[in-house]
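Tutorial handout. Part one gives the primary structure; part two gives the three-dimensional structure as tokens.
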Amino acid sequence: MLKIESITKLQQHVRHLRRASKVIGFVPTMGAIHEGHCSLMRAGRAECDELIASIFVNPTQFCPGEDYAKYPRPLERDLAACEAEGVDTVFCPDADEMYPAGSATTVSVSGLTDGLCGAYRPGHFDGVTTIVAKLFNIVQPDIAYFGQKDAQQAAVIRRMVRDLIWPIKIVICPTIREPDGLAISSRNAYLTPEQRKQALSLYAALEYARRQIQAGRLKVADLTAEMRQRIEAAGPCSIDYIEIIDAHELIPKNTVQGRCLIALAVRIGKSRLIDNIEVDAGTSKS
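Part two.
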């Protein structure tokens, strides 16, 4: 497995792959590799000739007061995890390499970034789209892999790729969960044992709403109120949002119709946890 820190060296490597007509798969990460990342790598390994992963803690997607300085950076462990999953090349630049002095360009996707996490983390998605655009330009992947847990991010990246007419296939892989249902996240490490038990209420509330919709209850205000009640009953928390929205355009709904995303963000202790599931109202009994 190659470890490359320089943009120039990675571009040289990519040119060599292109001359050899290799299909390039790409998994961008901020490190702290967990099973969710590994599932993306396995998906890429299964269908690509060359699998490239990046490890870069992107400063521009952290909002004021967030945990950039404290974000875990276990690089050697991350490299070992990438190698175990069959990654061919890991790109791990530093911040000065990705944002040279005088950088003044931002890539922004409007509309899709207004609600959900975008409403609570101003500037976050501009940071995401800017760094992903940079990485796409460097790696030039044929296929890039993202996780469903970050559903808004996935929708935003898809729109950016479509709008900028990049010849990149975006693959969204299922959320990976612990056996008890908790969505795997690097921020789970901040939870105490009691808080981790409390966090199970998030997935339980999502599944409750799914069952209610499939039973024919389609009024969004009622469903989200009941979800809120269940989460708050589990223990101290701060709920940023609980929403049921169009799964593709991320538009809020009053009544569940078609393919919907049930999404939430809840702060428990030091952790801000996000989770979501999709449901098709067309399968309800109404």
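Part three, for discussion. The chain has a mean pLDDT of 96. The radius of gyration is 19 Å.
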